[in-house]
Amino acid sequence: MRQALLSFHIDLSAGCTADTPGRWEEVDRPNGMDGWILNLTTAGQGRIGRGSRAFTVTAGRMLLFKPAVAHDYGPLFPDCMWTHHWVYFFPRSAWFEWLAWPEVAPGILSLDLAAHELLPRIRHLLEELTTTAYGPWPRKVALAMSQLEQLLLWCDHANPHQRSGVDPRIQRVMDHLGVRLDAPQTISGLAEVAGLSMSRLAHLFRAETGLTPLQFIEQQRIARARELLLMTGRPIADIADDVGMPDATWFARVFRRQVGVSPRAYRAGAGREPRLS
After folding, report:
1. What span, in angstroms and rounded, lies between the C-alpha atoms of 146 and 128?
2. Are 263 and 182 found together in one domain?
3. What's the pTM value of the predicted model, to 2 decimals?
């Protein structure tokens, strides 16, 4: 039986982890996360992976872990310092073309910014984003997402292997879903939109986004439901119908699995505060 991906049950979380001799910990998430993880080493040395696939990160190395990719990292040695800033997030559809970084290991992308003139700007945005995410502002997550958007754009500018964007066939599917979340969707129908076979669509979609088409649809539907729950007073059953999940019981179950609380509790205020990992 396939295990569920670990989730923080929020749209965005950010922080800074400082491992020092005598006070350090390793992260081991064999199944990875449901969202993306950005990680920038700012001091010391870290170990990513184990055995023959392990590699070392030093100050200025930025990593991106795709969803469902194992997280196995920590200081290079127990007596080694390693400071790294991180962000857990779900990319907006338009962002995927900025995430085409060089792949350093399966599902792990990397930029070496150590000598790049943009590193101070990117690091400042990352620190500012973390402060914003835990600030007193009512729209702090939206503000932090806007800072993350800037950060990813600057990273894209620093990407030596910049490409034109997401495969246009996959972008067509994402655009299609963006305006038809309320409609029933099938893999065969999406394959027709992309002009691909179902198996080719499944492979290419996951390679581009880190998710299966059905996982992407579910994420987008719940993200839209969260907006409607906070911004409108419409009945929960109507919102479920609006996002293509007319079975209210099923909607509530999926919502709780992704967000950590029921739609009613979320609307009342539970589960909106970001939590550190």
Report:
1. 11
2. yes
3. 0.71
